[in-house]
Amino acid sequence: MFGTLVLVLAGVSSAYSATFNVTVGADGQLAYSPAFVRAAPGDFVNFIFNPKNHTVTQSSFAQPCTPLDGGYDTGFVPVAAGTVDLPVMQLPISQADTPIWFHCKQPVGNHCGQGMVFAINPPTEGNNTFDAFQAQARATLNATATTSVTSVWSTPSPQPWATATATVTNGTSVWTTTYTSYLGSVPPSPAPQPIDHKIIVGVDTQFIYSPANISAAIGDTVTFEFHPKNHTVTQSSFSNPCQPLEQSTGTVGFKSGFQPVSADDTEFPTFRITINDTAPIWGYCGQTGHCAAGMVFAINAVESGPNNFANFVKLAKQTGATSTSTSLAPATTTGSSNNNSNAALSNAKISWIAIGFSIVAGLMF
């Protein structure tokens, strides 16, 4: 009897709602299809992710390629070529009075700048139509291209280094130490009192470490505190900012692994390293596209030469866009609750899980 009631209620619910299927990146195209839908409260939009690595990220008409603070975001959903069961994220619609704008935030190839945008209930006339929204998105690509043409920059040569021996005095203690020496690096003297340096990973949901460039003495520690989303702390090298150190040099470097953190978490995971010498330490976030967006850090960078932190960031943005070595995090439901009164969108949900649960529940009763 209860099972029959569940089915009846499901039938009543479906009679008053519609489901829109929107393909994301079908046939290798940088597009959502259809590009916009007209939905009513109670309807659902299924985003079906095709091969490559895309997102559905809420933005605004004024800034089509900038994520809306607190807005809906599926996060990156990597899909391998040849995948048969494509991942689906389902978005329930709770209001229809205001247009809702979206874009793909993949920085590699600037998907948004190439017109990969989507809308729910855009106006059919006036200044804020879907065509106008897409035109504004494409204008950001032109602005980026204009900037890059006028910027001339060449990759610095690898930083020369050697093994050096020095006599170190600390109070009444004197000892000889062997260390890695770089031209311009700080002396190999330990701090009188070791300091723990704290670096926030993904502060305010941005693709940054804060602070991103620090100096630390021998014996100091550096604690990385992971904030919401899903980031890593991965050691690299100056010449290959977006590759693990082991892959580019053969030397095993430190890796935190992926650290997923929910938006409502109040306790944050940490990862700590100890500074053993004064050689520059370079690192990046191994999440897809983050290094190419400039999410890198440095410890004891030599700012007086060409191998400085600013050039490290530039090199990451250039080489990260073509790197295929970055590990992919498992596709997860990373949409955050929307606090914007103009949208009122809920968290993303994998529809196949919900559908499977409903079927099982129906069979049980």
Compact description:
By secondary structure, this protein is of the alpha+beta class.
Report on this structure:
It is a single chain. With 365 residues, this protein is of the alpha+beta class. It folds into two domains: 2-147 and 333-364, Sandwich (Immunoglobulin-like); 195-319, Cupredoxins -  blue copper proteins (Immunoglobulin-like, Sandwich), CATH 2.60.40. It is 18% helix and 27% strand. The protein is built from five helices and 23 strands. Strands 2-1-4-8-23 form a five-stranded mixed β-sheet. The model is unreliable at 1-14, 144-153 and 322-365 (pLDDT under 50).
Give a quick set of tags describing it.
365 residues, alpha+beta, Immunoglobulin-like, four-stranded mixed sheet, elongated
**Helix count?**
5
CATH architecture of the largest domain: Sandwich
Strand content: 25-35%
Major beta-sheet overview? 5 strands, mixed
Unreliable stretches: 1-14, 144-153, 322-365
Topology, element by element:
Layout (H helix, E strand, L loop, with lengths): L1 H14 L3 E6 L7 E2 L2 E2 L6 E6 L2 E3 L2 E3 L17 E3 L8 E5 L7 E4 L13 E4 L9 H21 L10 E10 L2 E10 L13 E6 L7 E2 L2 E2 L6 E6 L2 E3 L2 E3 L8 H5 L9 E3 L8 E5 L6 E4 L11 E4 L9 H11 L29 E2 H14 L1
Parallel strand pairs: 1-4, 3-10, 13-16, 15-22
Antiparallel strand pairs: 1-2, 4-8, 5-7, 6-9, 8-23, 9-10, 11-12, 13-14, 16-20, 17-19, 18-21, 21-22
